[in-house]
Amino acid sequence: MACMHRYARKRAGRSRLRRLEVLGGSSGRKSGDIVRCDDFSHTACGREFTYWMELLGYGGRCWSAGENIAYGTGSYGTVRSIMRAWLNSPGHRDNILGRGYSDFGVGLRIGRLDGNPGAHVWTAHFGDRC
After folding, report:
1. Mean pLDDT of successive 10-residue segments in the chain (130 residues)?
2. Parallel, antiparallel, or unpaired for β 63-72 and 18-19?
3. Which residues contact 27 (CB under 8 A, 6 or more apart)?
4. Can you tell me the distance from the alpha carbon of 60 to that of 29, in angstroms, rounded to the nearest whole number?
5. What is the pLDDT of residue 52?
6. Do 79 and 8 contact (CB within 8 A), yes or no?
7. 98: closest CA among 59, 72, 121, 124?
8. Rounded CA gap, 108 and 28, in Å?
């Protein structure tokens, strides 16, 4: 998934985002919350979308953040399918291709979601420190 983000940005003539372990960790934990609480939302388990970013140390005095979430089963949960869906959605596309972020990380958890076993739950976290 990280490679697809880089490819999309390169193709759009955008600079490369730094892939940070802390944002990969926060993304994975967010996907875990979505599966654990069976709550496909940016506020899964009642937490703000920045909860894991801040807990793992990405925040600070001046920073910005964005989040893309998606899930699918079977062929709808693949990297290509999820990336295609994000790029066809204006808000998600802006997070991926916009100039407002310098850092990113992606996470995946597989589990039961909305009654669907084997759901691939993807989260991408984007950030910038002023």
Report:
1. 98 97 98 98 98 96 97 98 98 97 98 97 96
2. unpaired
3. 52, 105, 106, 107, 123, 124, 125
4. 20
5. 98
6. no
7. 124
8. 6
**E-assigned strand segments in 4-54:** 18-19
Give residue 28's Cα distance to chain centre.
8
**pTM (global) more than 0.85:** yes
DSSP character at residue 74: G
The radius of gyration of the chain from alpha carbons, rounded to an integer in Å, stands at 14
Structure tokens at 41: 């939302």
User: Distance between CA 40 and CA 73 in Å, rounded?
Assistant: 14
**33 contacts 43 by C-beta, under 8 angstroms:** no
8 Å CB contact between 70 and 86: yes
Cα 82 from Cα 5, distance rounded (Å): 11
% helix, strand, coil for the chain, step of 5: 40, 30, 30
Cα-to-chain-centroid distance, residue 50:
11
Spatial contact of 127 and 103, defined as CB atoms under 8 Å apart: yes
